[in-house]
């Protein structure tokens, strides 16, 4: 029995090896004996292979935030029906944060090279260029100058077939 | 100490976030009634809850509300406030606002409008500094005569740094390394300056390689008297914005410290500066320093000065604004120990410090002696792109720099802000660098140490442990593991 997670964008599977007498989990071939100790949210304490591991955790929807060992991790449960993981970013140019379009550097139908700026956006008083993820033809520009958008919204798309 | 009658009965804070909360704290100590303002979206904000009274300011955007000087003055009058504290940013360096406050019969807690006007224009401020014996870097201002501009620029020598006359925060700034890119870069900088500041004037000055950013905190009485409260070193910057500040600077000899602080006082005295202000300098590796600009307000990083001097700068500001004398003579200002501040920002250091948005799900604040966590945060609060990405400031004090670094390291490790990506882990890596410990700082520090500042690859870090913790916090996983009915599976899980 295994569940899929994505940690900072990398896929991982956690396998339940045994439940009793002690819970044993396997990640990428490494086995861990795990016990949970009482604690008060948001703090948690695990005993992993006999060693106490303290952390602070929070969850929103299927995403967990774990602060452990001086590092903050963002971990999402992956829906087994979702096959798109790892395939993202091919043809869509997405806004990394909410903001407003400053300028469009390309027109629909125009060819772009990978890394070339398609759109300049502004958010939190910062301007940034959104580059083409690959060589291609601009299929659609979904926003005009001065239009606003949300985080992860697609602002432009490339035509399906990359141009050689 | 006998209780004193407060200098004002009621003060409106024309700001938000951590600085509004920090000002309210001092007002409360002084027995002054505090009035907060907020945009429609901030009704539940921490500064609103902390203040004795709060008023909403309408605006097309949340920022527009905080920039509506006329509405803010009207609210101040309606609330019966006798003074306005502008904090930093927003209207704090707006001469027109200071003027409007005075004309409404209220006290502006800051310098007078003429001083703000003088120092707000970098070209004018540079000329004023030079006139009063404060060194400035050689510079040239572009004119319609492009040929003459190029010739003058070549005479100074490349690289040059282009800056906006009305600028700040790195907007309109650009480094030019050769003559052939000068005209085009100036044009771009001018158009950016026009967009941000409605003032397209730019100038180019000698770019100093590996400079330190050193600034001098001053208090002026408005009558030609001024004292300095030593310097702050703010060389650790990203995108031309400071993220770590400290006092004293590890890069100054006592003699150089005396010279640079004296230059700051000289400028404040010459300007008949009133209230708290900061004179910023570039310090070259050869020990020469050059006037950059004067900030006519409280700085974000003012707590490090408070930590080493024991003075409350907001209280000093209020007392001076009420017509009081300077809080101390120069020989009474004593510095003790070392203080460091880290700016905690919602941003992704691995993606060029791009601002991040989200919701604060968990906030665990470090405790301990000689530690301040300046913030306006509340659990559940949305972190939006409406305002600047700075969430909070972590400030520590130690007997010496080494102890301050240790204390900051521990505090950053104890701090947890979950739900939005922040630079906390990045700051922790930075503060642990050998080069930082050595005090070998310059404004390109972050770029120079980029490779060392990258996080460990996921496989080499404690990612398995984090995964196990996350899995055991998820209902689906607990159901599989413990095989118990759903309602009970939530026990021990985290709240959504």
Short recap of the structure:
The complex is a heterodimer of chains A (164) and B (496). Chain A is mainly β. Helix content of chain A is 0%, strand content 57%.
What is the topology?
The complex is a heterodimer of chains A (164) and B (496).
Chain A: E1 2-7, E2 10-18, E3 23-27, E4 30-37, E5 43-48, E6 51-60, E7 63-68, E8 71-77, E9 92-94, E10 99-104, E11 111-112, E12 117-123, E13 126-131, E14 136-141, E15 148-149, E16 154-158
Antiparallel strand pairs in A: 1-2, 1-8, 2-3, 3-4, 4-5, 5-6, 6-7, 7-8, 9-16, 10-12, 10-15, 11-14, 12-13, 14-16
Chain B: E1 10-13, H1 17-30, E2 33-38, H2 46-50, E3 53-56, H3 62-66, H4 69-79, E4 83-85, H5 95-103, E5 107-108, H6 113-120, H7 122-131, E6 139-140, H8 146-156, E7 160-164, E8 174-176, H9 182-197, E9 202-206, E10 212-221, E11 226-238, E12 241-247, H10 254-270, E13 274-283, E14 289-295, H11 302-309, H12 313-321, E15 338-345, E16 347-348, E17 354-355, E18 358-359, E19 362-364, E20 371-375, E21 382-383, E22 390-398, H13 401-414, E23 416-418, H14 424-431, H15 434-438, H16 445-448, H17 450-453, H18 463-472, H19 475-482, H20 486-489
Parallel strand pairs in B: 1-2, 1-4, 2-3, 4-5
Antiparallel strand pairs in B: 6-9, 7-8, 7-9, 10-11, 10-13, 11-12, 12-15, 13-14, 15-22, 16-17, 18-21, 19-23, 20-22
Helix pairs in contact in B: 5-6, 13-14
Report on the structure:
- The complex is a heterodimer of chains A (164) and B (496).
- Chain A has strands at residues 2-7, 10-18, 23-27, 30-37, 43-48, 51-60, 63-68, 71-77, 92-94, 99-104, 111-112, 117-123, 126-131, 136-141, 148-149, 154-158.
- Chain A is mainly β.
- Chain B is of the alpha+beta class.
- Helix content of chain B is 36%, strand content 24%.
- Chain B has an eight-stranded antiparallel β-sheet, with helices on both faces. Chain B has a five-stranded parallel β-sheet with strand order 3-2-1-4-5, sandwiched between helices.
- In chain B, helix 5 (95-103) packs antiparallel against helix 6 and helix 13 packs antiparallel against helix 14 (424-431).
- The interface between A and B is large, with 56 and 55 residues.
């Amino acid at each position: 029995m295994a569940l899929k997670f994505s940690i900072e964008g990398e896929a991982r599977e956690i396998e339940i090896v045994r439940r009793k007498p002690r819970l044993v989990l396997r990640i990428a071939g490494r086995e861990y004996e795990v016990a949970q100790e009482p604690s008060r949210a948001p703090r948690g304490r695990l005993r992993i292979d006999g060693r106490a591991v303290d952390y602070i955790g929070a969850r929103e929807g299927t995403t967990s935030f774990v602060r452990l060992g001086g590092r903050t991790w963002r971990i999402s449960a992956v829906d087994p029906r979702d096959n798109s993981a790892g395939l993202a970013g091919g043809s869509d140019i997405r806004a990394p944060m909410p903001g407003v379009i400053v300028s469009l550097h390309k027109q629909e139908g125009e060819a772009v090279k990978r890394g070339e700026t398609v759109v300049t956006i502004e958010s939190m008083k910062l301007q940034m260029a959104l580059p083409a993820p690959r060589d291609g033809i601009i299929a659609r520009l979904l926003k005009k100058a001065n239009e606003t958008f949300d985080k992860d919204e697609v602002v432009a798309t490339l035509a399906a077939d990359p141009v050689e | 100490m006998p209780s004193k009658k407060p200098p004002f009965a009621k003060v409106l804070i024309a700001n938000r976030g951590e600085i509004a909360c920090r000002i309210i704290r001092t007002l409360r100590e002084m027995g002054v009634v505090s009035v907060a303002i907020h945009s429609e979206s901030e009704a539940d904000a921490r500064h609103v809850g902390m203040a004795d009274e709060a008023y909403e300011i309408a605006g097309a955007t949340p920022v527009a509300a905080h920039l509506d000087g006329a509405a803010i003055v009207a609210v101040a009058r309606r609330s019966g406030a006798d003074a306005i504290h502008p904090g930093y940013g927003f209207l704090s360096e707006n001469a027109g606002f200071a003027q409007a406050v005075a004309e409404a019969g209220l006290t502006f807690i800051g310098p007078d409008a003429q001083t703000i006007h003088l120092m707000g224009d970098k070209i004018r401020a540079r000329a004023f500094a030079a006139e009063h014996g404060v060194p400035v870097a050689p510079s040239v201002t572009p004119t319609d005569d492009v040929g003459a501009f190029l010739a003058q620029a070549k005479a100074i020598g490349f690289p040059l740094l282009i800056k906006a006359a009305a600028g700040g925060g790195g907007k309109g700034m650009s480094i030019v390394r050769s003559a052939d890119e000068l005209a085009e870069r100036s044009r771009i900088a001018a158009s950016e300056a026009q967009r941000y500041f409605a003032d397209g004037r730019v100038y180019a000055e000698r770019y100093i390689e590996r400079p330190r950013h050193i600034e001098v905190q001053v208090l002026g009485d408005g009558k030609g008297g001024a004292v300095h409260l030593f310097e702050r070193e703010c060389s650790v910057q990203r995108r031309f914005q400071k993220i770590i500040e400290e006092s004293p600077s590890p890069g100054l000899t006592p003699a150089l410290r005396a010279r640079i602080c004296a230059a700051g006082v000289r400028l404040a005295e010459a300007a008949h500066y009133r209230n708290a202000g900061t004179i910023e300098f570039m310090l070259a590796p050869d020990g020469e320093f050059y006037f950059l600009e004067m900030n006519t307000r409280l700085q974000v990083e003012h707590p490090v000065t408070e930590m080493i001097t024991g003075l409350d700068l907001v209280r000093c500001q209020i007392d001076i604004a009420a017509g009081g004398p300077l809080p101390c003579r120069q020989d009474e200002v004593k510095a003790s120990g070392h203080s460091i501040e880290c700016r905690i920002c919602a941003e992704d250091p691995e993606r060029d410090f791009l601002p991040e948005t989200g919701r604060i799900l968990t906030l665990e604040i470090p405790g301990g002696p000689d530690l301040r966590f300046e913030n306006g945060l509340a659990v559940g609060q949305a972190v939006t792109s409406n305002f600047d990405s700075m969430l909070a400031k972590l400030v520590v004090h130690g007997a010496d720099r080494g102890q301050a670094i240790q204390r900051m390291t521990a505090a950053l490790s104890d701090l947890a802000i979950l739900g939005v990506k922040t630079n906390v882990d990045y700051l922790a890596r930075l503060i642990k660098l050998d080069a930082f410990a050595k005090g070998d700082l310059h404004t390109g520090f972050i770029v120079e140490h980029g490779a060392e500042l990258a996080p460990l690859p996921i496989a080499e870090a404690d990612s398995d442990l984090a995964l196990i913790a996350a899995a055991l916090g998820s209902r689906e996983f607990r159901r599989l593991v413990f095989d118990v009915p759903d309602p009970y599976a939530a026990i021990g899980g985290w709240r959504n």
